[in-house]
Amino acid sequence: CLLRIYIAFQDYLFEMMLVVESVILKKLSGFPDSKIGPLQIRKSTEKFLLFLKEHFDQLFGKMEEVLLQLVLNIPRNVLLPEDKAHEQHPYSQEQFQALQDEIHQLQQQCRAEVAAGQALRAELEEKKGVQAELEKIVQWFDGLENICREHGTSSFKESFAFLTQNAKRLQEVLKDVEEKSKKIKKHDQFV
């Protein structure tokens, strides 16, 4: 309230000085032989404004004290509408501090829960990626099982055993072919 009053008085002071300056300029325009120019009038107006502002600040300080003591002071026996909650629910400084501590603790719990929620969301995203990979592996095993059924094996274990036996046979055939190839190369070298 006091700041608004101060600004209003100050604005009025500035406006008044502009009016005084324009009146002086009009009066001087009637005297063409005058040696005082608009620049000198502006400097003089600014000096006078500075002088008035310093005195105004001193006076406003005194006025502020009087306003705070006599006009804007609310007696202790007066209860404002916004203070009715304090009347209905009085509290001590210890109770207030206990509430502040509880608020601080609840804020920390909220932060911890938010962090935990973010961690759980990140873990869920990771699990979705792993689940997608597992689904690909299951599809691959289903494809293997379908191929094994087409070749006459009924269960996956039997199919896997069948594939293992076939792999071993292929390895033996590969070794056999490599040995024969080496023999053929040796025979070709001697010939």
Provide key terms for this protein.
kinetochore; Centromere_Mis12; 5 helices; mainly alpha; single chain; cell cycle
Task: Provide a concise account of the structure shown.
Helices cover 84% and strands 0% of the residues. By secondary structure, it is mainly α.
Low-confidence stretches: none
- Average pLDDT metric: 85
Report the radius of gyration as a whole number of Å. 49 Å
First CA to last CA: what distance? 118 Å
Pfam families: Mis12
Main location: nucleus
Family: Belongs to the mis12 family.
Coiled coil: 160-187
Overview of the structural elements:
- The termini are far apart.
- By secondary structure, the protein is mainly alpha-helical.
- Among the domains are: 1-75, no CATH class; 118-160.
- The chain has helices at residues 2-29, 38-71, 84-88, 93-150, 156-190.
- The chain has five helices and no strands.
- Residues 160-187 form a coiled coil.
- Its main location: nucleus.
- Keywords: Cell cycle, Cell division, Centromere, Chromosome, Coiled coil, Kinetochore, Mitosis.
- It is found in: Chromosome, Centromere, Kinetochore.
- Belongs to the mis12 family.
